[in-house]
Structure formats: C-alpha cells, structure tokens
Amino acid sequence: MPAEEHPMIGVLLNGRTLRGIRRGSTQHEALQLYEHAAARLGCRICYFRLRDISLRRRQVKAIIPDGPVGRYVTRMIPIPSVIHNRAIHLTRRAQARLGRLHHLRYYIYNRHTRYSKWFIHQLLSKHPDIVPHLPETRQATPTAIHQMMERYDTLIIKPSNGSIGRGIMKLFKDGGRWHLQYRTAGMERTLRTRRGKRSKRRIRTRRWAVISFRSKLPAALKRLIRQRRFLVQQHIPLACYMERPFDLRVSVQKGDSGSWQVTGIVGKAAPAKLFLTNVAQGGTVYTLEHLLAANPSLHPERVRAEVERLALLIADHLDRHLPNLADLGLDIGITQLGFPMFIECNCRDLRYSFLEGGLWEEWAAVYYQPISYGQRIWLDRQVTSGTAN
C-alpha cells in the first residue's frame, strides 16, 4: 500500500447515494457536513462505491470535492488507506471484497453495517451489567410465541434483519382475546392520469390492521415466521409524551481521542394510538428535554446520565466483538420509572433525526466525529509505519 503524504479519508457509499452527488440529492447523507469536517481538520475526503475499487491496481474511481460546496471532480486515485463505510453490503461477493481490502491493510471502520438483531442480542446477553436492560427476546417460532404469551400480555414481533420499523407487529391481549396489530402492504389502485387514461400501479397505501384470535396463532403470522426470521420480544412499557410512547436515538461514536463518546441524543414519539416511534413510520422528533418536561417524575439530568452510561457500556462491549466499530446509533427506551432499556443497534445510523429535531450542533457533530476518528487512525498508522514527518 503506497504511503500518503496528506490525510485522505474515503467514504464508502451505496450506488444510489453516490449517483445523487451530481444531482445534489444524496438521500439522508449530508455530505457537505463531511466536507466541512474535513476542512476544519485539514484533511481531504472522497466518495466511492465498492465496485469502483480496483484491487489489482490499488486504485479507485472517486468523487472528490473541488472548490465551492457542491462542486466535484471524478478521478482515479490510490485507494485511501482509511475508509469510513456508510454502505450496506449483503452479498458474499461484497463481503469477500471488504475482507480482501482488510487483508491488504486498508482500515475500514464500521466494516460491517448490518448485523441481525438476534446476533446483537446474543452478544449483549453476555455482559451481566447489560442484561437487566434487555427485554426478554427469543427467535419467533409458534412454540416460542405461545410460551411468551403465557408470560406477557403484550409482545413485539419483529424481523431479525430489518430497519426503520418495517415489518414490526404488536401482539396484545385484551378482553380475553389476543390481537395482532400489523401494517398492511401497498395496495394496487386504478388511477386516472392527467390525460384521462386509467392505469394500474402499486402505490404506498399502507394502513394498520388487526387480527383477533383466542389462542391459535393466525395462519398469516405462522406463514411470515416460516418465510423469514423474526424475533418475539417482551414489550417495554415506555414513558409517554401526550399519551404517545417515545424512545431515544443515541449517537455513540469514536472521535479524535479514539474513545467512545455520546455525540447526541434525540427523542422520537410514536403517532397517536400507535406503537412505532420510527420517523419513517410516522414518528415525530423532539428533544429529550421537551419529552421529559411532560414527565415530571423523571429527572432530566439523571435520565440523560443513565442513558449515556448504558450507551457507552453497550458500545464498548460490542467493540470487543465486532471489527473496527466506530459509529453507532442506539435506540434506547425509557420505562415509566425512568429505567433505560435497549431496543436496537444501528451500525449505519441515518442521523437525520437530529436535523428533524432542530439539533443543529449535534447534527454537524455526528458527521464531524467519524472524520476526526479517521484522521486519528491515519496519523497513528503513519507513525506506526515510520512515514510521519
């Protein structure tokens, strides 16, 4: 691997985001904040996809900021020795390619950005101080669901691999019957075009539906858990804001110190009469202080301290088991008594909740920290290789 005279941090993106750079539409990635961070730190930055890398030539076709914000050039350059992974790679071929880069001593932090919820739960279950903060969780089979129904009146059934709240169901007992609350798939509708023609197409008309039963699981649920891996989980009675349950997105990252730190916390409240807090499922973003003001029994400083303590404990524990971890978005719930409970771990935090909540400093910071960490790694590697000035 050739020596680099100046820090160059590569940001590995998925294809859709990379193609959007030229159009000025990069989905939830605020690339200009990476660029502001690089300018402050005195390093350079570039963007590319995994497919743009030539391992044989040790080069990559990268998009590089050039001058004013929003101006870029595309060039073949040596593969940056330090890379921040912001893409999801699920195929064996992609995983093998990442492994090859690692073998060639390229440092990819957050090398893997998708782990199953069951795998993460098993890892966290090994730490005795984290276990009290974990809802009881099992792999969803008809037997496991029935056993959990005997223990709890409300359960959550969720895909083991999934994001932004898709596919999550609520199973609850009321009036001597069980009820499965789920979101329906898109419906095919006949639409009239501007020219008066009719056409059929699938559009997103998702709505919530409920199946009621006494004890025998609905055939639709059994079919789902046969086709895909699901988890069945104890429902956490979350603290509420205006009768809407809320949880917290906690950004935990490594920065220039190389140590874990909490960069920001933002709250997400579920829509009225629903249970999913995800913004993509209709949740609303609020600051932690705003949410806690509606819960006089919860002390804001104490809650924040307990949430940060748990977040750092989880990050440190996962860091001991997962390769090159440096950037996490943790979903942590608060019970009505103020006790923090782990909900989910995201190894590719979308970060936009901070923007939605008007937390401008935190929003900028969650982009700054990964670049400052990348520069720290680059400098450490230069010293180790003996090429530092």
TrEMBL record:
Cross-referenced SUPFAM superfamilies: Glutathione synthetase ATP-binding domain-like
A UniProt-annotated Pfam family: ATPgrasp_YheCD
Top-level taxonomic group: Bacteria
The protein's name: YheC/D like ATP-grasp
Organism: Insulibacter thermoxylanivorax
